[in-house]
What we know:
There is one protein chain. The protein contains ten helices and no strands. The longest helix is centred in the middle third of the chain and has 23 residues. The C terminus is likely disordered. By secondary structure, it is mostly helical. It is elongated, with a radius of gyration of 19 Å.
Amino acid sequence: MGRPEKALLQGSSSPCLVDFARGLRAQRTTAGLTYTEMAGSTSVSAATLKRAASGTSVPHIETVRQFYAACRPYLPREQQIPIWKTTLKAWQIARMEERGTLGARGVRLTLIADARDLSLALQEFWEKKGALSVRAIRRYSGTEILLPLTSLERILKREALPQSKAQLLAIVRGCFATLMEEKQWDAAWQKVFGPRRPPKGPDVSETRTARPGPALFVSRH
């Protein structure tokens, strides 16, 4: 397994990041791989993979995916899906910690009543899922043609609404929505717009107080 890694900082000011790094290390230990061996089956370097598990900064989501992809063939079959889900959730929480949004509760999808609710809920959903870059969202959506980068940026800033249900679902899918969450977004769109297209026109980001508070490797259930 090579030289021992540096110990993770105890009492860190970023405990969620430390927990995430600890999970990556456990994943690699279970797989029984060195970082050099992992790098041989990925498109990232051994140094990048090691840095991802260092607990010093939150890595890019693609690095996390590559880390898991390298380990996956060596993990017990029954543990593969749970390990990915746990890894993804830990990364999302670490990102929220980094961005200072851990306390946000978000808008319940079942309570969305109008276009502004939907816009706010989508922005908060994006934060909850790790605030991925627009390029990452488009990449992981599986339907890149629906997500021009400029349009996606405006939607996430609440300067515009998705222009179709298909576009909305592409966005949430690109944010690693579960199948249940996709169904909830589908229902929210139907509730607000039905068969109509959303109106083009004024900015939807009027001042409003927020409520306090390619395909994945595995199933999104």
